[in-house]
């Protein structure tokens, strides 16, 4: 019996030893990025020699490289590279009606190829198409950025943009918001072509009561302060912030209101020279503090302002990116180009002065604690504002205006996520976050233009190396 027990003990030891030598089966991740330097866009800290493992669209491991072995369906070499969250373009347009739907769809590739993994559509007439694209992207049938959309814009009777919801009375405002909620939009976009000041403020107030975010242009017949106090969540472009920086804002607003009863009402561009001449640092400080206190964000869109101001001298005939813009969308650029060529010299010079002034507002807004959101305003009718590349240009301009590279990166990543209420889900490189990432070959904190140096993009947990992105671009190139 003793001998048998010894044999049994030796046999059990041998079995256990064999088990110990047998390699443990490794989990197979969808993507592994190894030996990469992670940039924490919240703090600016660098984490060198990290491994990031991705499964089912989420980041599931972040740790020092070489601690463990990793098996992956897609392996991405991060050695000498920098990983940031995917970029957000917080002001784009999908529009032009059904005849331009296919042309708009091509821009999804352009956004992704330039590192933009999320966009915010700021109103148009292609809501059914957007919903279809989102379903196709979630199913993995097509590649492109996540899309937040406002659906149709809200404006007044006789609105400029097709598909707008036209409101005048409180009841009409309510019906418009009912319609947008049925469409399950992500926020409400207001436009200023025809809407009255009263209807504008009423829309903000009603949307606020329903828990809907509001952003938009503004009629010059109301003050930005009044809109902010009603609950406006963001102001698009800087024209409306700039008016609030005038020491004569109240009298200029009254002048605009009085002109509405005349055959020739005063518009934004007619009033801007007077706003420029009455700029007041004290007034600017007051409105910036109010915006920060009430959490009203701003989307400066510096790049489109610069591009349009330079149109009289640059027809963009040699732009390499034109080849990737559908001819039908290129045709929509003609109106603004023709208008720019007819501008008198004085108007051209004022446009340049205005853009310089707008640039000076950006660091002041940042210093006051106002959330800055990076947006390009790319889309049909916005001449030569190319999807993807124009957001990169916007971020670079934010730095030229006076932001640090880190602040500009934040404007194009975490600020957008916070604004849309998904900061806990995305825009950071941490376990549990969405795997929407950009791999760069150079550090953007040293030179913000390095956001152009893309080695790979990860969208919804799938990696697209530079070669794959180039192939996707070739597929949409106009022959």
Automatic annotation (TrEMBL):
InterPro entries given in the database record: Amidohydro-rel, Metal-dep_hydrolase_composite, Metal_Hydrolase, Metallo-dep_Hydrolase
Domain spans labelled Amidohydrolase-related: 82-462
Coiled coil ranges: none
Signal sequence interval, chain numbering: none
Pfam families noted in UniProt: Amidohydro_1
PANTHER family listed in its UniProt record: ALPHA-D-RIBOSE 1-METHYLPHOSPHONATE 5-TRIPHOSPHATE DIPHOSPHATASE
Name of the molecule in the record: Amidohydrolase family protein
Species whose genome carries this gene: Hymenobacter monticola
């Amino acid at each position: 019996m003793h001998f048998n027990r010894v044999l049994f003990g030796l046999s059990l030891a041998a079995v256990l030893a064999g088990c110990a030598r047998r390699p443990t089966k490794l989990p197979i991740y969808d993507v592994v990025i190894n030996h990469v330097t992670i940039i924490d866009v919240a703090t600016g800290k660098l984490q060198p020699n990290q491994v990031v493992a991705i499964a089912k669209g989420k980041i599931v491991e972040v740790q020092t490289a070489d601690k463990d072995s990793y098996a992956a369906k897609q392996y991405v070499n991060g050695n000498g590279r920098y990983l940031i969250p995917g970029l957000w373009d917080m002001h784009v347009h999908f529009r032009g009606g059904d005849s331009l739907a296919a042309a708009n769809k091509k821009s999804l590739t352009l956004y992704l190829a330039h590192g933009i993994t999320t966009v915010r559509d700021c109103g148009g007439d292609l809501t059914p198409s957007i919903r279809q694209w989102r379903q196709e992207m979630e199913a993995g049938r097509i590649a492109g950025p996540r899309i937040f959309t406002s659906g149709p814009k809200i404006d007044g009777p006789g609105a400029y943009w097709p598909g707008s919801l036209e409101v005048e009375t409180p009841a009409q405002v309510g019906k418009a918001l009912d319609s947008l909620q049925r469409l399950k939009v992500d926020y409400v976009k207001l436009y200023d072509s025809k809407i009255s000041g009263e209807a504008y403020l009423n829309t903000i107030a009603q949307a606020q009561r329903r828990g809907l975010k509001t952003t938009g242009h503004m009629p010059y017949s109301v003050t930005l302060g009044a809109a902010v106090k009603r609950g406006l969540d963001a102001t698009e472009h800087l024209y409306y912030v700039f008016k609030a920086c005038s020491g004569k804002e109240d009298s200029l607003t009254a002048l605009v209101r009085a002109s509405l009863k005349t055959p020739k009402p005063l518009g934004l561009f007619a009033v801007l020279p007077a706003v420029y001449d009455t700029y007041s640092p004290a007034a600017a400080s007051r409105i910036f503090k109010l915006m920060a206190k009430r959490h009203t964000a701003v989307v400066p869109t510096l790049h489109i302002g610069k591009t349009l101001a330079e149109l009289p001298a640059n027809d963009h005939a040699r732009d390499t990116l034109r080849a990737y813009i559908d001819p039908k969308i290129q045709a929509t650029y003609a109106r603004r180009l023709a208008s720019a060529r007819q501008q008198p010299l004085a108007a051209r010079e004022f446009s340049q002065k205005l853009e310089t002034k707008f640039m000076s507002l950006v660091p002041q807004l940042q210093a006051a604690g106002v959330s800055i959101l990076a947006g390009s305003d790319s889309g049909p009718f916005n001449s030569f504002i190319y999807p993807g590349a124009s957001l990169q240009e916007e971020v670079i301009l934010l730095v030229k205006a006076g932001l640090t590279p880190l602040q500009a990166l934040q404007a194009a990543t975490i600020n957008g996520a916070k604004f849309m209420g998904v900061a806990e889900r995305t825009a950071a490189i941490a376990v549990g976050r969405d795997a929407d990432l950009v791999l760069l070959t150079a550090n953007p904190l040293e030179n913000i233009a390095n956001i152009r140096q893309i080695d790979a993009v990860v969208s919804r947990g799938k990696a697209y190396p530079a070669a794959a992105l180039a192939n996707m671009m070739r597929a949409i190139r106009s022959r």
